[in-house]
Amino acid sequence: PISVYAARHCLDMDLLTRGAGFGYIGSTITSLIYASFTFIFFALEAAIMAYALELAFDIPPAWGYLICALIVVPLVTHGVTIISRLQLITQPLWLVMLVLPFVYVFKEHPDILRELSAYPGVSGTHAGFDLMSFGSAMTVGIALITQMGEQADYLRFMPECRTGHRARWLAAVFVGGPGWVIPGVLKMLGGALLAYLAISYSVPVDRALDPNQMYLVAWEKIFPHQAWAIAAVALFVVVSQLKINVTNAYAGSLAWSNFFARVTHSHPGRVVWVVFNAVIALLLMELNLFQALGKVLGLYSNIAIAWIMAVVADLVVSKPMGWSPKGIEFKRAYLYDVNPVGVGAMGLASLISVLAYVGWLGDMAQAFSAVIAMVVAFVTAPAIAWATKGRYYLARSPLKSPQMARPPFVHDAPAEAEGAPLSKVIRLRALHRCTVCEREYEADDVAHCPAYQGFICSLCCSLDARCQDLCKPQARWAEQWRGLGRRLMPEFIWRRMDTELGQFMLIMLLLAPLLAGVFGLVYQQQMRDLDVLDLTNTGAAAEMLRGAFVKVFTALLLVAGVVAWWVVLTHKSRQVAQEESNRQTHLLVREIESHRITDEKLQQAKQTAEQANQAKSRYITTISHELRTPLNGILGYAQLLDEDHQLPEHVKHAVGVIKRGGDHLLSLIEGTLDIARIESGKLTLDVKPVRLGDLLQQITGLIENEARAKQLQFHADIDPALPEAVRADERRVRQILINVLGNAVKFTSTGQVTFKVRYAREIAQIDITDTGPGIAQAELDKIFEPFARRR
Fold first, then answer.
1. Is 719:757 a contact under the CB 8 Å cutoff?
2. 612 with 681, same domain?
3. Parallel, antiparallel or unpaired: strands 425-426 and 410-411
4. Which residue in 153, 265, 336, 447 has the fewest CB atoms around it within 10 Å?
5. Is there a single domain that holds both residue 613 and residue 722?
6. What's the pLDDT at 9?
């Protein structure tokens, strides 16, 4: 079931665990378990390779450990593509070197299988079948169930099942997934056979369990020279351990990345965790903790088995029964932090099986502790799912909208065509852009985020530490913990527990047993080494060692207490800072909203003003039209009278003044219309040749009459070197000069007004001076402002 779901939904073991009953934070526990298994297996396999290097090249184990740990790192950092190529290239050589020794062994010892089945063991007491031994051996074998996680890391790259190829697809999934059990069992039996062969050749039991010694005995049957056999063993072991450890390192990096991404909301990159995993394994090898690791692995395997079986139970029982949602939902935005179905089943199965493993439930239960873990987890997970009615699987329903829907597959070749190449199948999927990283993802990899008001990808959602699970506040583990505490404890007790002191006590309850377990394992290792030494007073040395361990444990427990307080207070400080940041953000959002409302009002006011301005422009246009109608009649008759040669000279002079005044009034009306044209952006200049001298004479005659009426002296000094014609807008030049000269006459009570025009280098300079009061200093800056006037 794990293989099928991993291949069908393209998920690794961690994402599969999330949606199969463990929840978002609950699967963090399994990620830590899985990561621990990977570096333990990494250390064991690298140590075997180091011993091969020692056998072949006499490299000290300490240096061999370093070489074997570091050689894997550059291979794994290039990803699964390089790993797949390595597996493919080395597969023929590895397969030949794996099988060839057995061919020669069976040729030289045809009865070796019968002899192995009759072998009574090291103790010599179990010549036949023994149930206790069978249970212990099965526990060791079932512990390898965690290998399924590494198989899932490869199966998630399987292409989707195509119509008409379901049988082939399932066969490929079986071979790539649970199919590893078949060669795995054969290799375990082959290892037992080679170990028996080594023992029969008087190799000590502790050395006969070393794969290097096993295959050395077999290869010595093939090659006549021991050096050749050693070279073959070294080559085979190095190739085998590289094939194994690239997978261990890759799977471990994924597990550590998943674990720390959820705990710290940080993702420094998978390469960091590859190195991290290798360094932990190197420390274990350098400290020579292999005997202690054997005990840890046996104890740890019960927890791993409980985890895997809880996932299997959800897939094969809860989902078909409807107690678990169909499919696998792995995104943080839709999951409860802790799902009691998987976490509860794993916790209960782990507790019972560990008690059985340490012997508290009897010898038979101790031998079959792995089976107990399998049965309890498989039964408990569906039971909890049924009891809770599946309410802790989804914190909210995934968004189903037309934008989230995936279009169907589109084929440019017939869908049922046999043998159609995969490249001919075009899969069209709806893509959504993440609002955080701005990359495009398929609908299955994004969720709608109310904090960012848009789609967010699964990775950015996992790394975000600011949203405080706004989309599912009731599903946070802190809220789940508070809800559980209120149901199980009286209110007055819970109020005291839900404080910084209560959090400190909870952390210490987790740290103290963990430290005690680590120290216990190291202590047992040291006591075992002490027994090997030939000391005269072993009891006194053991007592001193025990006292030293107790003192160091106590000191570290004090340090752990300080660290726990620091973690609690830092978390509280960050929580307060986050609340203050949220408050300030809320105020900022309110201010932005108020600015938006103000801006809307300004836009509305601007629109009203523009409408009023348009009404004013229409009024100006209308009134100008009404004024031009009678003015055209005045100008027409003035022109007719001006052309009548029978009129007296003084009358003709008056008619000329009327005509020029009418023309000026007409220009003023045109200027008023220009205001409307300027506001509408339609003002244009009427540039054409103008007789500048005649224009200035006309303006002089007009202004001269106004000055004479006010008994002012008007002097016009026009340069005779003016060009005959210039290109200009005559009407606007006339308007500017009449306005300035008119103001000079208007605001001058006594004295004179001088109009001087000079021309040089194609530039005409016009100076107008008067004996009036002038312009106040405060009003000088307003001269060129539109519509400004002196009062």
1. yes
2. no
3. antiparallel
4. 265
5. no
6. 86
* pLDDT, mean over the chain: 82
Rounded Cα–Cα distance for residues 255 and 632 (Å): 94
Residues 629 and 645 in one domain: no
Tokens of 243: 């094939």
CA distance 464 to 455: 13
Can you tell me the distance from the alpha carbon of 561 to that of 555, in angstroms, rounded to the nearest whole number? Answer: 10
- Number of structural domains found in the chain: 3
Please report whether residue 544 resides in a domain. Answer: yes
The CB-based long-range contact list for 363-370 (8 Å cut-off, 24+ gap) reads: 363/132, 364/131, 364/132, 364/135, 367/131, 367/132, 367/133, 367/134, 367/135, 367/136, 367/139, 368/135, 368/138, 368/139, 369/139, 369/302, 370/138, 370/139, 370/142, 370/143, 370/301, 370/302, 370/305
CATH of the domain at 214: 1.10.4160.10
Please give the Cα distance from 144 to 132 (Å, whole number). Answer: 19
Render pLDDT for 401-418 as a digit per residue (tens, 0 to 9). Answer: 444 444 433 333 344 444
Structure tokens at 545: 């060692």
**Span 251-273, mean pLDDT?**
83
Q: Retrieve residue 407's tokens.
A: 């279009």
Helix/strand/coil percentages in the chain, nearest 5: 70, 5, 25
Burial class, 302, CB count within 10 angstroms (exposed 0-12 / middle 13-18 / buried 19+): buried
Answer whether residue 63 shows pLDDT above 70: yes
Task: Please indicate, yes or no, whether residues 120 and 6 belong to a single structural domain of this protein.
Answer: yes
Whole-angstrom distance, CA of residue 666 vs CA of residue 638: 14
Q: What is the CATH number of the domain that holds 728?
A: 3.30.565.10
Among 583, 604, 633, give the residue marking a domain's end: 633
* Whether 701 and 628 share a structural domain: no
**What whole-number distance in Å separates Cα of residue 120 and Cα of residue 128?**
7
Closest CA to 104 of 231, 225, 215, 227: 215
pLDDT in tens, 451-462: 888 888 888 888
Does residue 594 share a domain with residue 534?
yes
Domain boundary among 264, 285, 306: 285
Within this chain, do residues 131 and 242 fall inside the same structural domain, yes or no?
Answer: yes
- Identify the domain containing residue 716 by its residue range: 638-782
Q: Which residue has the tokens 């099928």?
A: 4
Q: Is the dihedral of CA 106, 107, 110, 112 positive or negative?
A: negative
Confidence category of residue 375, pLDDT binned at 50, 70, 90: very high
Q: For the chain, what percent of residues have pLDDT higher than 70? A: 90
User: What residues are paired with 1 via a beta bridge?
Assistant: none
- Per-residue DSSP letters for 465-517? -SS-STT-GGGSHHHHHHHHHHHHS-HHHHHHHSSHHHHHHHHHHHHHHHHHH
> What is the bridge-based pairing of β-strands 752-760 and 713-718?
parallel
Position 127 scores a pLDDT of 60
**pLDDT tens digits, 417-436:** 444 444 434 444 568 888 88
Coil/strand/helix, residue 448: strand
Of the candidate ranges 107-116, 456-465, 494-503, 689-698, the one whose mean pLDDT is the lowest: 494-503
Q: Is-contact 409 420, C-beta < 8 A?
A: no
Exposure of 41 by Cβ count < 10 A (0-12 exposed, 13-18 middle, 19+ buried)?
A: buried
Q: What is the largest CA-CA distance in the chain?
A: 158
Tell me, yes or no, whether 614 and 686 share the same domain.
no
Note whether residue 323 is domain-resident: no
| Cβ neighbours, 10 Å, residue 265 | 12
pLDDT of 354 strictly over 50: yes
357 found inside a domain: no
**Can you give the three-state secondary structure of 581-630, one letter per residue?**
HHHHHHHHHHHHHHHHHHHHHHHHHHHHHHHHHHHHHHHHHHHHHHHHHH
Counting Cβ atoms within 10 Å, is residue 722 exposed (0-12), middle (13-18) or buried (19+)? Answer: middle
Judge whether 595 lies within some domain. Answer: yes
Provide φ and ψ at 759, rounded to 5°. -135, 125
